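User: structure tokens for this one?
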Amino acid sequence: MSNRFALPLSVCRKTPGLAPLLVAACWLVSLASGAQAQGMVYRCPGPPVLYTDALSAKEAAEKGCRTIEGTPITILQAPKPRAAGNGGRIEAAPVARASSDAGRVDPNQQRSRDNERRRVLETELREAEERLATTQREYAGGNAERRADERNYQRYLDRMAELKASIARQESDVAALKREISKLPS
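Assistant:
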């Protein structure tokens, strides 16, 4: 923020003909302008809210900015831990516990859920094994016959590479499904 009456302190010091009173006045004016620049911070509205001290009072009023000087500050303090009568040790506040049966599922209902999950996983496993067998037959150990659209040998090699990658993915899918089924209770 600029003050039109403020002179830089260096100008006041470098002028040898000034009286000591004038030097003191220059020094006070420069201090006052510095204090004024540091003290007035404005909060300007807008999509990005702007906090600035680079505006004059007139510019701030035109933009609808308000000073934040003297604005109350809210301080939230953390709650202090309670000291119990146990030799000075600090313990956490007691937590209300629900009954032990609140989070449990009826054993019959859990058994039916497990059986349903097993049925779904076994169905997925059968389908994955069928896809794997079909892809392995098509791959034929890397010696599949060339198709009519594979006159270019590179197309044939690309198809074989895709089939080989597909077999690897399907084998890992089958292994993952078997692991999931083995985790289920019998």
